[in-house]
Description:
The structure holds two protein chains of two kinds. Chain A has no helices and eleven strands. By secondary structure, chain A is an all-beta fold. Chain B has no helices and twelve strands. In chain B, a hairpin with a 4-residue loop joins strand 8 and strand 9 (73-78). At the A-B interface, strand 4, strand 5, strand 9 and strand 10 of A face strand 5, strand 6 and strand 11 of B.
Amino acid sequence: DGGITQSPKYLFRKEGQNVTLSCEQNLNHDAMYWYRQDPGQGLRLIYYSQIVNDFQKGDIAEGYSVSREKKESFPLTVTSAQKNPTAFYLCASSAGLAGVWQFFGPGTRLTVL
Amino acid sequence: AQSVSQHNHHVILSEAASLELGCNYSYGGTVNLFWYVQYPGQHLQLLLKYFSGDPLVKGIKGFEAEFIKSKFSFNLRKPSVQWSDTAEYFCAVNAPNNNDMRFGAGTRLTVKP
Lengths: 113, 113
């Protein structure tokens, strides 16, 4: 089945630790995205990548980092510099540029203790 | 940058009632418009989309949305809701040739049986 997988579903970390969230897609999509979802705020874009080895900051990139070494993978690292990291993180992908919609993964709920 | 406003944070309806969820966006140029739905415990998924042509678009499960360019609106409607429509609904917009998708804060719909 084609789709997007995110692992793990739930993640707990101690304050001050970096943590990396996995996102893999087998849809052969060029573009991939990371969003953060908080109650009452909708989805806010953290980073996106239109092509391998290239990515752009979204609205709330501070405290996060990404890499795009392979087309199918777009891991997100939540660093200790992120002041409020506890949230639900969604990964998405799309086929490319104009007029396409995004497919979403199941999400990872990160709790920093 | 474009932004999206969803007027209702939480809507509660009885089964068979009609639904209209408001969505307004701020962007002066051509836009692509989307409604996504997130059922409890499930992935965010595309409900319907508008790129061009007939401003009244039909999506899955009996939903439809009307694009009114003069009002910068893309309201979601359903004539008769069911208990299974209980979910969170997100309006989103992007400009053609631009991967930067903007989401509204979401509207939580609760349908009472």
